[in-house]
């Protein structure tokens, strides 16, 4: 995995790397490779922090991922959207929760933490 310089990357490059890392993190978690999963999680967190630092327009660049073909990508983007566009993120997480499976369980836990006010964003 190549480390990207988030501070120097264009927003669309960050979004593409966010998507790739969301898939890779989920695959690594599902296969039990927690070291790899943690590395990809760190990339996702670094990218999200940088997008937040750049402002709402940069954060909003994640919103198209709410319609991504991969439910794991939708789940990551929807979880982050709860911070800046909850009206967009919450319905996606509700649909994912209803679908069940690992992604559905993650969506359910994310929504529970958010509703309690204990969800923390990187």
Describe this entry's structure for a reader.
With 122 residues, the chain is mainly alpha-helical. It has one domain: Phosphatidylinositol 3-kinase, accessory domain (PIK) (Serine Threonine Protein Phosphatase 5, Tetratricopeptide repeat, Alpha Horseshoe). The chain is built from 6 helices and no strands. It has helices spanning 11-31, 34-54, 56-60, 71-84, 86-99, 101-116. Helix 1 (11-31) runs antiparallel to helix 2 (34-54). The radius of gyration is 14 Å and the shape is globular. The model has no long low-confidence stretch (mean pLDDT 95).
Tell me about the biggest sheet? none
* Low-pLDDT residue intervals, each spanning 5 or more residues: none
Give me the Rg, rounded: 14 Å
Shape: globular
Give the number of DSSP strands: 0
CATH superfamily: Phosphatidylinositol 3-kinase, accessory domain (PIK)
Report the CATH C-level class: Mainly Alpha
Order of helices and strands: HHHHHH
Average of pLDDT: 95
Number of helices: 6
Helix content: over 70%
Percent of residues in beta strands? under 5%
Oligomer state of the chains in this structure: single chain
What's the CATH architecture name? Alpha Horseshoe
| CATH topology (level 3) name | Serine Threonine Protein Phosphatase 5, Tetratricopeptide repeat
Tally of discrete structural domains:
1
**Through-space gap between termini:** 21 Å
User: Which structural class is indicated by helix and strand composition?
Assistant: mainly alpha
